[in-house]
Amino acid sequence: MQSPSPVNLNAFDATFNGKFKFEYHYPDATLPRARLGILHTPHGSLDTPAFIFCGTKATVKGLTPQEMKAVGAQIILSNTYHLMLQPGSALIHKMGGLHKFMGWDGPMLTDSGGFQIFSLGHGSVSAEIKRTQQSVRPKTVLKIDETGATFRSYIDGAIHHLTPERAITVQQELGPDLILVLDECTPFNIEKSATEAAMLRSHRWGQRSLMQYANTRDHYAPQALYGILQGGVYPDLRQVSADFVNAQPFFGHAIGGSLGATKEQMYEVVDQVAERLATSRPIHLLGIGSLRDIFSSVILGIDTFDCVHPTRLARHGGALVPYAIREATGTPRREHINLWNSRFIEDPQPLDASCSCEACSHFSRSYLHHLLKAGEMLVQKLITLHNVATMNRVMSDIRSSLRDGSFKQTREFWLGNE
Amino acid sequence: MQSPSPVNLNAFDATFNGKFKFEYHYPDATLPRARLGILHTPHGSLDTPAFIFCGTKATVKGLTPQEMKAVGAQIILSNTYHLMLQPGSALIHKMGGLHKFMGWDGPMLTDSGGFQIFSLGHGSVSAEIKRTQQSVRPKTVLKIDETGATFRSYIDGAIHHLTPERAITVQQELGPDLILVLDECTPFNIEKSATEAAMLRSHRWGQRSLMQYANTRDHYAPQALYGILQGGVYPDLRQVSADFVNAQPFFGHAIGGSLGATKEQMYEVVDQVAERLATSRPIHLLGIGSLRDIFSSVILGIDTFDCVHPTRLARHGGALVPYAIREATGTPRREHINLWNSRFIEDPQPLDASCSCEACSHFSRSYLHHLLKAGEMLVQKLITLHNVATMNRVMSDIRSSLRDGSFKQTREFWLGNE
Predict the structure, then answer these.
(1) Which residues in chain B touch residue A174, judged by CB atoms under 8 angstroms apart?
(2) Quick check: is B17 in a domain?
(3) A346–B94 CB contact, under 8 Å
(4) Domain membership of residue A396 as a residue range
(5) Which residue in B64, B363, B380 is closest to A103 by CB distance?
(6) Is residue A23 a part of any domain in this protein?
(7) Which single residue of A132, A173, B149, B325 has CA 20 to 30 Å from B244?
């Protein structure tokens, strides 16, 4: 399975005979790189710019697919790393694939497992890439070489070897619509030479992934493959990486790896990279999900985003709300209000009176605050539902605003005059 | 507030001018004490026999009121003990009462707090009353005397004094439809003399509760008061207690306290007590919720039941299913199947193909098993939803079967030929 096959990649059809398609246009002349698109998959279409919600272990934590749909979710993702360890891709394949297994019939993406292996494995990579605090997890990566990555399962200690080819096979067994190549993730503060070496290896892995995919995809339900850009914070490396993926017959491109230590550095990287990428393909920005980052990246040409942020934040009592509500409740510089705050003890208002989700239709901040203090799981579900509804509303607002020229006002509604 | 008032209890209207009403008939001549009823409250009516679901801290764990309604729940309860400590009855009153606070607009009951104070406080009382293992909780009851119970909050250590009058006031502030008198709960294995003393004190507390309620109820939304029977496993004491509540103008009666060490002893106690109680009032059996206990008690004249069992069981992966499914999956003598069991790893069937709940409509046992192992909260919600749906289906089946004379077959469908 791993040896090169006779498929001619020069003539390879990344759209899988039109089963996947990306249509787009640039509606606002004052934002020349911001675009509206429709991404067609065998499980339906999504309007872009779009947010992809994390259903890591084959479930968005606390919500059913029906609930996700009801609040406008267009697409979700699951993590190959977690699912290959538990319950295993072979089981999910046997049960009819991820869509059937988890009851989600819309478009779906899986990552390749690379990010988790390297970030959980090195302990600090994730924290560094995401610019958060140091992780305290034990290191589980045993070896990384040209063949792939060898690591221990965090569940039972079993040793796994994930190659670029195996990452494709696992994703074929899982069966989502959009799949990713295996890449090697490096933190932002390693030397340029190490970043370059990892990038070049990721390119070789990308080519092997493409070969494996091209030679086997007819045996599985239709899937489209995304290539991943690396190159860290180095413009010349990012350029090399963009040129590499442009030259390969990927269906879409995902911007991966470290985007720097600050927001400004991140926007610079995204700016340079997105400008150089083939506009004919959808561009995904991996692991980014703050409102500010989304507004800033859409105008650079990003089509899709994913991040655990809205759903994880919800489980800790944080509700995404428009700027005016944050200002009125004393936290204008955050993107959310913290329902743990004692100012909400007797607050009879809904989270966000302008939101029509179930949480905002039926429950007060006072009640949600009580549920948080009482440790009641219902609150995690309710705020998650609200945050998913709100992210979809933000994306919908962004799309409308590109259509009618009100992007600036929409940005102000959500982020204020910053 | 605690001194007797001029209300004349001999002429007292327990139905609150007809705002509460219990209609009933005995449809099956072969089961002369089994009855069908309708219990009318200001928040709607419920068909009896009915099961009351526990929403201890103002939420049924994991489900919204809308979800409860969708699977047929008619009535829920909350626990006075928990809510008086957190967030406090004054706050809930200020927020418009329990119905508004938690978004449940149907009939609702609260207990008086007595059971939790005594069971959590003594550590072993709950375990003994419920015939389960010894509790390891610290003792929090500081003093019990004629005035009431003094105990420490399990949340912040603050000292609370709950009198019969205060238990009424707290429940008036909470605002459910049906409320209970404060009683003193004793374990089954204490001496008869101690059981008798506690019973007589509970009667005095019952009278004080009634006085407090009668003198103040016009200041609150309409509520109906239930008296509680004590007397442990002693037939002569239970008789005294039944005669006591019959003689007081309560709206309904709840059978409390220890029901013995075995199922047989419990059915004997319920048999004797229910026979002696005024048939004109609804009879509630406190804290009982196994399918076998319900089928056995309905034919003795019990109208309503409550128990954490169906919802707690669900959170531990136990799904209530008809007998045939338990038999087919190797656990006929249990009332549930355990989704943790590895036999379900590759089982593509729903929990119960004869159930129409969301969990059974969309998900396989294989998926639920995966979610349990992965520690995903969605599974607690899904199995809770299923168990609530199933308890409502059981109660509905019981009601239909009393109507059409098929009680025995219905019992067999759920419990087999035991």
Answers:
(1) none
(2) no
(3) yes
(4) 317-415
(5) B363
(6) no
(7) B149
**Per annotation, catalytic residue among B28, B303, B306, B397:** B306
Task: For residues B107 and B199, state if they share a domain.
Answer: yes
Distance from CA of B153 to the nearest CA of A (A): 13
A241, amino acid identity: S
For residue A133, the model assigns a pLDDT of 47
What's the pLDDT at B138?
A: 62
Mean pLDDT of chain A: 93
- Structural contact between residues A39 and A22, judged by C-beta atoms closer than 8 angstroms: yes
Give Cβ neighbours of residue B100 (< 8 Å, ≥ 6 apart).
Answer: none
Find the catalytic residue in A28, A293, A306, A397: A306
Cα within 13 Å of Cα(A255), Cβ side: 36
B59 in any annotated domain: no
Tokens 């990384």, residue located = A144
Whether residue A28 lies in the annotated active site: no
**DSSP string across A158-178:** -EEEE-HHHHHHHHHHH--SE
Listed as ranges, residues in chain A with pLDDT below 50 are: 1-5, 124-125, 128, 131, 133-135
Sign of CA dihedral B386, B387, B392, B395: positive
Asked if B382 lies within 8 A of A64 by C-beta distance, the reply is: yes
* A367 → closest Cβ in B62, B101, B373: B101
Same domain, A205 and A56: yes
Domain boundary among B305, B337, B364: B305
Could you give phi then psi for residue B352, rounded to 5 degrees?
Answer: -150, 105
Q: Do B244 and B351 belong together in one domain?
A: no
Contact A58 B370 (CB under 8 A): yes
Identify the helix (H) or strand (E) that includes residue A77.
strand A76-78
- Per CB-CB distance under 8 Å, the chain A contacts of B59 are 371, 374, 376, 378
* Same domain, residue pair A376 and A303: no
> Phi/psi at B323 (nearest 5 deg)?
-55, -45
CA distance B369 to B373: 6
Taking chain B (418 residues) in consecutive chunks of 10 residues, what is each chunk's mean pLDDT?
A: 61 95 98 98 98 98 98 98 97 98 98 86 52 56 93 93 97 98 85 95 97 97 97 95 97 93 94 97 97 98 98 98 97 97 98 98 98 98 98 98 98 94
Q: How far apart are CA B288 and CA B363, in angstroms?
A: 30
Place of tokens 């694939």: A97
Q: How many CA atoms lie within 13 A of A151 on its CB side?
A: 27
Among the candidates A260, A276, A307, a domain finishes at A307
* Count of structural domains within chain B: 2
Closest-CA distance of chain B to residue A262, Å: 33
Same-domain pairing of A145 and A282? yes
A381 shares a domain with A261? no
Residue A136: which CATH number? 3.20.20.105
Q: Which residues of A touch B (CB under 8 A)?
A: 57-66, 82, 86-87, 91, 94-96, 101-103, 345-346, 348, 358, 362-364, 366-367, 370-371, 373-374, 376-378, 380-382
Report yes or no on B61 lying in a domain.
Answer: no
pLDDT at A135: 47
Is B111 known to be catalytic? Answer: yes
Choose the closest CB to A378 out of B59, B95, B382.
Answer: B59
Q: How far is A363 from chain B (nearest CA, A)?
A: 7
Task: Report ipTM for this prediction.
Answer: 0.95
Which residue matches tokens 């009482």? A374
A374: closest CA of chain B, how far (Å) = 7
**Residue from B56, B365, B376, B384 whose CB has the most chain A CBs within 10 Å, to mutate:** B376
Same domain flag for A253 and A179: yes
DSSP 8-state assignment for residue A357? S
The C-alpha atoms of residue B117 and residue B139 are separated, in whole angstroms, by: 10
Pick the residue from chain B with its C-alpha nearest to A378: B62
Whether residues A61 and B376 touch (CB distance < 8 A) is answered with: yes
Instruction: Assess whether B272 and B322 both reside in one domain.
Output: no
> SS3 of B217, please?
helix
